[in-house]
Structures are given as C-alpha cells and as structure tokens.
Amino acid sequence: MRILAAMSGGVDSAVAAARAVDAGHDVVGVHLALSRAGGTLRTGSRGCCTIEDAMDARRVADRLGIPFYVWDFSERFRDDVIEDFVAEYQAGRTPNPCMRCNERIKFAALLERALELGFDAVCTGHYATVRDGARGLELHRSSEEAKDQSYVLGVLTADQLAHAYFPLGDTPSKALVRAEAESRGLTVASKPDSYDICFIPDGDTRGWLAERVGTAPGEIVDRAGAVVGSHDGAHAFTVGQRRGLRLGVPAPDGKPRFVLEVRPVTNTVVVGPKEALAIAELAGARYTWAGAAPEDPATAFACEVQVRAHADPVPATAAVREGELVVTLVDPLHGVAPGQTAVLYDGTRVLGQCTIDRTVSAVPVDA
C-alpha cells in the first residue's frame, strides 16, 4: 500500500512509520505545521508540533530513508480546533481539543489530502487496532490497556477506519516501543511524551482564555439561586471544579462546594455539594458510529461509557431518541460536563461517541 505516515516528532509515530516501512509499504512521511509561530520550541513535555518536533521527524525520516514533507495546516487547525475550543468555553462547555484534532485534522483534512494524492491509508502512532467484524471494520482498544488511545479515536467513522493504519496497536508496552526506537538508532527514543493542550504549552488555560474572550464579572449561586460569590468570567470554570471559587458565603453544612453548572447566557456559575455532581444520564445530538451502527439504534442496548481519555468505562445503556444519543448510567457518574466526549464500548470495541450537550443529575435540587 501507499502509506502517508503522520510524523509528530515523537517516538510513537517514529516507530509506527518504521514498522510501515518494514511491512513493505511505500511510505512517505509528513509533519503537520499547526502553528504559524515558526520559532516555537518545546518546553520539556509541554507542547507539540513545534519547529523542534518537525526537525526530529525529519531526522527519523532520513534514518528510515523515506521522503519527508511539512504541510501547513495551521489555518485549518486554528479554525477547526482552536476557535472551536474558545467557542465551546464561551458556551459554558468543557471541550476536548484532542478529539477535535483527530476528527477534523488528522482523519479529515489530512486523510482527505492523502486520498487525493493517491495514498491508501494514513499511518499514525496511536495505540488502537482496526479489525474485521461481522458487519465491517471495527475499532478496538490496544493490547496495552494503560496506553490505550481508542477513546480519542472514537470520532472516526467507518470510511475513515478503512483508511487508518495503526502499527502500534498490538504492542504490549510503551517501554518496548522506546526500546525498539533505540535499537533502530532513532534519536527520539527517549523523548518525553507531550501532554496538556498543545496550543497552551504553559498549561494556563484560564489565562489563555482571558486574553481571547476578556473578563466579565458575574455571580456564583447555589442550586436554589442564592448568591454565594462572584467571578470575573464564567468561561474560567468547569464542572467539578473546587479550587479557586473564592466563595463569600459558606455552605450550611460547612462542606466544600463544587461547580455544578456554567450558564454563559447569564454569566452565572452554579455550585453545590459534591453529591450533586452525580450524573444519571447524559445526551448529545452530535454523535457518530465507529463502524457499523447498531441494527436498531432506537432500541436501548447495553454498553460501557467512558467520558475521559484515562477514565475507567462504566456500565450503561444507550439509544437514539429524538435526534440525541442518550446514555443512561447503571450507577451515577461524577463530574461529567457538557462539551466532554462520551465514547461507547462493547468490550474492547468502540461503538461510537457523542459530544455531551446535557446531563441529568442523580440528586434532585431539593435533596
């Protein structure tokens, strides 16, 4: 096959590209320039897609003897990931930019260009597997549970899975990938993994948002509507947050209070007891299926749902009702926020996902 290897400059994508070459594929490496600040450098494990990463990717490609290009996707990344991130926070939601990047950049914009140029698949260093199932291709967890990245790939559709190539999916551990990179003489063998939001490398999300959307004083209220504090901008708060509330009125029971809801229209933040973070149901209108859809999505089916990349999946039932994918939890789940992504599983198989639009608390307001 003709393979376009997306090379981030990290060890995972480097070994994935090397394995694609070993498998006899015609491989071309590409690094995506996602920022127009060309002089940007990494700070340890923070940030990615920097000029330093591009140079690391080029050195790996030279070592593998494959052609290498840098493609400027910065405008698309700004529009589809960064601006979406800001808009979601302004709407009172908690977005996941990595999901949007996989959905709209790596497996939409990149794959689209790859197919136009005659490539058969895009290769990445994600830890996940694509298998043949009874009703077509299926996305499954990787063999290494701790490094599994199927959650952030839950946005992929059946057509995208048909052109996705994940050589690391059956690798038992990240340590083995690093050892393989070392044995191949790849200079990225001991390079730290990147973390946090790549376009906010210092990790100060609140400060970054304040620069872009400004500040707007508002009220912090309890579940009954009583004012218990004030803030400089609702966008700075997320559901489940405890620190930084600076409440002027203590709770009657003396216990800590947490952010339960962000209301952007009125610029209000709602707080309450930890117990009120328990969610019985979540739903989203923006849903997709990773492969074949259930034969009858309107009929409730058993599944597990995962709402964060490193969270444990929990038992649930799901069904499509009135244009929404509605997920009912067997036991309440804590700290779920609109804007997060809920990925559904059947064992190791990814069934589909939705961006959470609303949640239903398991604890009544007057409880």
From TrEMBL:
UniProt site positions, description: Interaction with tRNA: 126, 340
Enzyme Commission number: 2.8.1.13
Source organism, top-level taxon: Bacteria
GO cellular component annotations of the record: cytoplasm
Record localization: Cytoplasm
Domain tRNA-specific 2-thiouridylase MnmA-like central: 208-272
Keywords: ATP-binding, Cytoplasm, Disulfide bond, Nucleotide-binding, RNA-binding, Transferase, tRNA processing, tRNA-binding
Record's catalysed reaction(s): S-sulfanyl-L-cysteinyl-[protein] + uridine(34) in tRNA + AH2 + ATP = 2-thiouridine(34) in tRNA + L-cysteinyl-[protein] + A + AMP + diphosphate + H(+)
Disulfide bonds: 101-198
Primary site of residence: cytoplasm
Annotated catalytic residues: 101, 198
Molecular function in Gene Ontology: ATP binding; tRNA binding; tRNA-uridine 2-sulfurtransferase activity
Binding residues for ATP: 6-13, 32, 125
Enzyme class of the recorded protein, top EC level: transferase
One BP term from GO: tRNA wobble position uridine thiolation
Annotated spans, Interaction with tRNA: 147-149
Domain tRNA-specific 2-thiouridylase MnmA-like C-terminal intervals: 284-356
UniProt key word Cytoplasm: yes
KW Nucleotide-binding (keyword) present: yes
Matches recorded under HAMAP family: tRNA_thiouridyl_MnmA (MF_00144)
Similarity field: Belongs to the MnmA/TRMU family.
Function statement: Catalyzes the 2-thiolation of uridine at the wobble position (U34) of tRNA, leading to the formation of s(2)U34.
PANTHER family from the UniProt entry: MITOCHONDRIAL TRNA-SPECIFIC 2-THIOURIDYLASE 1, TRNA 5-METHYLAMINOMETHYL-2-THIOURIDYLATE -METHYLTRANSFERASE
NCBIfam families listed in its UniProt record: PRK00143.1, trmU
Protein name per its UniProtKB record: tRNA-specific 2-thiouridylase MnmA
Species this chain originates from: Microbacterium album
Lineage, top ranks: Bacteria, Bacillati, Actinomycetota, Actinomycetes, Micrococcales
